[in-house]
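G., before I forget:
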Amino acid sequence: MKHLLDFEKPITDLQQKLAGLREQTAARQLDVDFDEDIRRMEAEIEKKKKEFYANLTPWQRVQLARHPKRPYSLDYIARSFTGFSELRGDRLYSDDRAIVAGFARLGDHRVMVVGTQKGRDTKENILRNFGCAHPEGYRKALRLMGLADRFNLPIITLIDTAGADPGIGAEERHIAKAIAVNLREMALFKVPIISMVIGEGGSGGAIGIGVSDRVLILENAYYSVISPEGCASILWKDRTAAPKAAAALKITARDLLELGLVDEVIEEPLGGAHNDHDGIAQSVRTALLRNLESLLKVDPELRVRQRYEKFRRMGKFNEGAAPGAPAAAAVSPAG
Amino acid sequence: MTDPSPPTPDSRPPEPALTPPPAQLDTSFARKPRVAANKSRRRDIPQGLWTKCPECGEMVFDKELEEQLKTCPHCQFHFPLCARKRIESLAKPGSFEEIDAHMTSVDTLEFTGTDSYAAKLEKHKSRTGLCDAVITGFCRMGAHRVALGVMDFNFLGGSMGSVVGEKITRLIEAATLQRIPLIIISSSGGARMYEGMFSLMQLAKTSAAIAYHGRSKSPYISVLTHPTTAGVMASYASLGDLIISEPKAMIGFAGPRVIKDTTQAELPKGFQTAEFLADRGLIDAIVPRRQMRERLTEYLDYLCAAPAAKKTA
Ligand SMILES: [Zn+2]
């Protein structure tokens, strides 16, 4: 029912045992002592589950981030927002259904919401290109974010993509440039921008809508410069070494928070967001609202400068023994 | 010369869609000059070092190759050119002032694959004599003072980690503050995998810096050389007011093998070459290396008011 993954077997085993016990109780009308056992077992399962899901490996989290029942952008748009009114097309070539965008309300706030969108079944996945956007998707996102900026609507982006489309058409129509332009323009928008990585944060395809004042990430989502499989095939010439790569790349929500590369981790329902769509949508709504309201208190000019400085600080390096090097505290041109 | 045939297979840039070069690339890409087997030829030319052109198969005398800025005198094939030589070929002699020359990468993630990142860095430093994959600084080109960044593919496939991102960003910021033109010569397999998400964030950082440079009303010319792909192409390399390329450079986002595997389709002829992309509207002009300095100076003459005409405040 809940679509359990292979690595969740210890939990399923316990649950089956419990179900068996319950059946026995029901069938034989056994006495109270058995109820006690069931309660104890339930408590034990709950405890085991908490332990189990708190200690998932990075690769197991990647599996959860890709879970076929995981809520996608439109699920959040339906539950965390109200009154979604979709807007389509890049006004240049086509409408890329791998990115959805439109007006919506977040609490009392009118916002522009933009998200990469995966399909639930084969048919929808073909329509949505498995959530891998073409240049048109990034251009649609840019057009509508620009509109939001002009009409003072905060921008919320939901990120869930394995990456931008690696195809012939995407290259012919300059996917790299489309992403680059978004990075440049998002740095300048005056309205607040919040991004939430809800599933997969696949490299350039993800950051193409991810230059934001606040970058939030769900507990089991990941955000990576390269897919674990891609990394594994380069390093070990073996895609099945992906679990090792997932650990080496430090791509989990907690790792990224520790490295200072995301601003906040949103806790998921026990076992992953797919177990409770309404629950996670409520948490997402609360987090988005809290961040939006705090961002709205900041002067727009200052907000844009802080956004610049936030990304400006990212990077670890050694200055080296440069005699007479200029002071590091140079004035940023965003000032 | 305009035949848009793709670069030779072993000079193809890294595979993964968005990121970094495979480990072996740095060795396979650079063609080491070889001593010609033909002894009589060796006697004719005492230096005796020849390189076989991978495009036309002709043996090219290395001294001549150097004089021609590493382009084949027979077919104009552009061999890789290291960053120092590139700067020499562009800047007014003696005018280049390097900045951040000693900045080095840190193995923040303690990344260990087949080899540790720290070990890889050491290996590439000693092999190339570079601290990382880009050299930045100021120089004169014609009448113009220019902020110049030159990437070097020999250092970890020209991949962009924190150092490349920081040096490029500082260069852009300096150009913005000084209101001078910016030229970046790219050559990169993409973001540097070994620095994980720090590398991806350099895309945002450098592109944001370009946004402010654009507001300063000084031009940015992006020059693409073989190969420029993935993360660098998805950031500053694509954001030039002018985008210029060397002939036949491979340019793109995803690696051709990834595209082939994903689409299961035959790739069009000349796919992801400079000529292919110029025909599809990405590139302003394809400029052979030996004309590059002259052409860049010409562009600057159009885009920047000559210093003499500038009113002093
Ligand atoms: Zn040749």
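The CA atoms of residues 15 and 194 of chain A lie 39 Å apart. The radius of gyration of chain A is 22 Å.

More on Monday.
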